[in-house]
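Why predict the complex rather than its parts? Because the way molecules touch one another can change local conformation, and only a joint prediction can capture that. The input here totals 1422 residues.
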Amino acid sequence: MRPSGRDLSEMRAVSIETGFTKHAEGSCLIKVGDTHVLCTATIEDRVPPFIKGSGLGWVTAEYGMLPRATNTRMRREASSGKQGGRTVEIQRLIGRSLRAGVDRVALGERQITVDCDVIQADGGTRCAAITGGWVALRLAVNKLMKTGDVVSDPLVDPVAAVSSGIYAGQPVLDLDYPEDSEAGVDGNFIMTGSGKLIEVQMSAEGSVFSRAQMGELMDLAEKGVAELVAAQQAATK
Amino acid sequence: MRPSGRDLSEMRAVSIETGFTKHAEGSCLIKVGDTHVLCTATIEDRVPPFIKGSGLGWVTAEYGMLPRATNTRMRREASSGKQGGRTVEIQRLIGRSLRAGVDRVALGERQITVDCDVIQADGGTRCAAITGGWVALRLAVNKLMKTGDVVSDPLVDPVAAVSSGIYAGQPVLDLDYPEDSEAGVDGNFIMTGSGKLIEVQMSAEGSVFSRAQMGELMDLAEKGVAELVAAQQAATK
Amino acid sequence: MRPSGRDLSEMRAVSIETGFTKHAEGSCLIKVGDTHVLCTATIEDRVPPFIKGSGLGWVTAEYGMLPRATNTRMRREASSGKQGGRTVEIQRLIGRSLRAGVDRVALGERQITVDCDVIQADGGTRCAAITGGWVALRLAVNKLMKTGDVVSDPLVDPVAAVSSGIYAGQPVLDLDYPEDSEAGVDGNFIMTGSGKLIEVQMSAEGSVFSRAQMGELMDLAEKGVAELVAAQQAATK
Amino acid sequence: MRPSGRDLSEMRAVSIETGFTKHAEGSCLIKVGDTHVLCTATIEDRVPPFIKGSGLGWVTAEYGMLPRATNTRMRREASSGKQGGRTVEIQRLIGRSLRAGVDRVALGERQITVDCDVIQADGGTRCAAITGGWVALRLAVNKLMKTGDVVSDPLVDPVAAVSSGIYAGQPVLDLDYPEDSEAGVDGNFIMTGSGKLIEVQMSAEGSVFSRAQMGELMDLAEKGVAELVAAQQAATK
Amino acid sequence: MRPSGRDLSEMRAVSIETGFTKHAEGSCLIKVGDTHVLCTATIEDRVPPFIKGSGLGWVTAEYGMLPRATNTRMRREASSGKQGGRTVEIQRLIGRSLRAGVDRVALGERQITVDCDVIQADGGTRCAAITGGWVALRLAVNKLMKTGDVVSDPLVDPVAAVSSGIYAGQPVLDLDYPEDSEAGVDGNFIMTGSGKLIEVQMSAEGSVFSRAQMGELMDLAEKGVAELVAAQQAATK
Amino acid sequence: MRPSGRDLSEMRAVSIETGFTKHAEGSCLIKVGDTHVLCTATIEDRVPPFIKGSGLGWVTAEYGMLPRATNTRMRREASSGKQGGRTVEIQRLIGRSLRAGVDRVALGERQITVDCDVIQADGGTRCAAITGGWVALRLAVNKLMKTGDVVSDPLVDPVAAVSSGIYAGQPVLDLDYPEDSEAGVDGNFIMTGSGKLIEVQMSAEGSVFSRAQMGELMDLAEKGVAELVAAQQAATK
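Output of the joint prediction:
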């Protein structure tokens, strides 16, 4: 009944290729089905003004989409002169989510910027960006620990994200674009490897949902995140 | 134990003064404690390009904050040359939320723009904006129905929003600024008068939460929204 | 003969509600007929670079209009990405006018920013902004004097502003919007409580005027400013 | 007593070289002492949307200053990404002033854009721009009349502008930069060839002035404008 | 003597992977050594206003660099609010170069936009973008010919580009980043498969060069372009 | 056969009027036929951050065009909010070219900004800007040497630029606008007084060219630059 023929609770195929670019301190190309996101992590010694001198670290994120990542070419944000509302919303979410899994004292006064650039989009780009972004962050932190710049591991728990939603009246896991564009309700669930919640966003465009449905979507999400965390572990071992 | 002395499940005082400005088709000044938001609804015959000719209506929202609505003066967005990420995120939320309560066929091919401008801020401005925005929308639609431009009521169910969160380890309803700035977890719940969910956003900055806590916060939100809907009904009777 | 039925030299009703918002060091909502402007004064320790270290203070102003303050909704300047020419022109005028009544040595090296935001417009918003802006400034300076940060009063003379113009061939005081949009000549007069001139702007759009008419408009303005200064004094006593 | 040795009521030397550039329908380089402004008039068939179909013409103006027109290099507005407040204020003034001398019915539904670019600045650039701008406009209209596109002369009365102010306690005509930067009060007077007023702007930065002083400055201005109009007539004969 | 150990006239390894993304009408990932550029071609029915109705086609290009494509993270152009001068210069070059190989009558009134996004940079990104951009263009045109939308092949001759320069006093082919940053003179040569020149840019930063040196660099470039054209043919066969 | 009646290798008339504006440390109005460019040089003590403390000087350039320098009025870049791609490309070229003739050690840690503003355009504005820009630079450096701020002359060799191209199948020198808009191939050659090359840009819009043609265009350019350098020497003697 799903356009892709998947079961209701079946994720798309996930692959994570680490070291996709050579300059970044950490990088990977994550593929969740036909959604491909390049994630890089950059370590810098400077921190934002509001924590200067605090001894605390910072993790932030930026998100972009190549103009022809989508079915129809979108105008390049650099040429239109500003990041759209959707971009801003997503990159703030990625940053908040990744920070939730970081011990900022252990990280020390430095900043890690995670860039997530969508090479090809087929639904769920923000979730793939968070899941792949954590891998890039993990690899960058590994480098800091190898050099001894960081002693105690600041990444206390993996962070991954997945979507679920009501499609054609049924709760389904990991919506692809054809599902996403038709779904009455969709949610994004950002969770830790130990099953804690970091952020939940459920939204109904021109529709409503019940607490019971909310529970079903959460059940699916827990299953999906567990699979993603396993993929992260495999990639960064 | 709350800075304001309120009980854990106690809302701040709510007042809604309708007709606060004379030009708008609908307007109100909503006060939720010391958070004061001016909401106006403007009816226009044009609709966005993507629904032109569809016969469907559109509801959209914009959000702003006066520079000295806050404790410290913020730079005016008009002078800094763009709306910040937070502004964009909030106004998209308001628009989506209000649309969820609208029968766009009944509204007919016209657009209603709801402007929410924060006169004074003390936490929870986005929730006050949604709750007050719906009142402005209600009043504007009443005008359309009085003139016969709209025949069947397109506002199928009231829409209101409230926050809850974990403050000092306890779930509390309707966070004010001192609570909001200290809360480990906070959520915004947008619901209908009949208790359905439109949007749920729960977020932990540098922290995590459990499904059980999520349930407690939802319980509080249901109580708060019921009180807000009663205030909306009283104001627009 | 005036649309409002007022006499040629009759001002609209004026009210000034002080303390309209709680965060600002000084604030008021001034109403001149149906023109309502919220004015707030913010004290900051920093001054613009060009007077740093001079020991002199600075007073500046910003002006904005809520999108639906007017009969037809105007695009939000924050969303269009810049302040329009009219906004820039008006806020520079407000700043210059208020500074004319300030002893900048007595103020000391600090800056006061006066924000004037039009809640509802019906002609004469720049004059109401100056008159109300001075009240906000007065209240903020009072606070500085109460704490002893400022010893000698830097506000040497009140500042107020009023318009007059030629409407239907007759000189009239305090133009409302229906008059303003039809007037062949209109002027804005910024004066002190002691009757001195700070700024005079008289302008004929597609028309011309004589020195004799200029004198008549000034006579009206002197009467209007005297009434406004009385209202300022009453409000800040 | 004036830095330049001029009498109190003495203008700087004025020269107007017409046809300074070959492409524009009208152009001149006006020199008022060391203030040099290049003015060009461009005729276009399109008019602004708000008068489309009205049969009325439009005259508008833009103003710019080359980066090193001034003693210290100013940042190029094209590179800083926007026109400053002073630029916007001045170009609106030029446009309003020139329109006051135009019979827009006689002009017919077309637009003339007058560009005023300051090549070298020494005080009084806005007045020189208006005076020279009218010459460019005159030449462009002459072309329209020669071709028969316009039959009845739409330029009913010349428009010229001059400054006067209180310098070192004395009223002086046509302030140059050393005077302008020290003057307590300065005014710009835009008048017609027949001695009518179009716009009066008098302003005291950190000072005040009386009605009597206002009269003295107006007297000076009337003398100056008469001389400028004579120079315009000589240049466009 | 070259940092990479290459001979003076030796290109880096070149690979072209076609079909790298699924949505674009043509796409490839071109690798010239460690410089990796993703090129996509998008076919649209609209053309720029200046050729509307002419029956002629248009080819244009945009260029971007991911923030961490370089050794040090660069600010994202979308977030800084505009494309830098270097970006603008490069994308205009790519567009001009590709158009030189296109019969715009045969293409018909449609536009192909070639997006070149640098995934990893190690010198010579503009040349790689042109060479890979032509491949994406070739693939998109193939699609148009397969569907019969285009009958006669508009790609009259392949287009490819290579750099050469004076490094450590010696003429070398295909500069990588360590060479490029030290070279006294560097040139970019855009040529056709049949050995004709489309664009030559030779530039000495803080240095000069002779006509004889210019000839040597051209000789190297001819060799390099021949190899690149062979790689293009192999990839698009 | 050329529209202007010139011989194939004949330059337009060149005149250079130095001291055109009084404030700049160096200035000239260069006229190459009907192309008129005002060039000013500004000396500042600050240098760009990347050479601060290095003891080296910097020369940079900005380029602009007055709105009616061209046959049709162009939108003012200050009002459109950014410099177009063509402007950016040209001003980067001017800066690079002038720097090539400067001994930055001899100049000392200061910056000279050369502003080139096109008053009237008829083809070849970038070449006129470089040739005139060098004259303004020469005059400014003369001032530094007269005051003793600079001891050894940092201008090692004059810099001038000229265009040549293939027009109607023939190589011609110094293209004017009618030729430039029809030319299949055009090149800009920036050279030193001693005949060395600084930058060569040859470009074919929708066409191609051979190495033999390239040589012919270079021959013409060498002749043109020699004449321009003579004019520079005459003007700055």
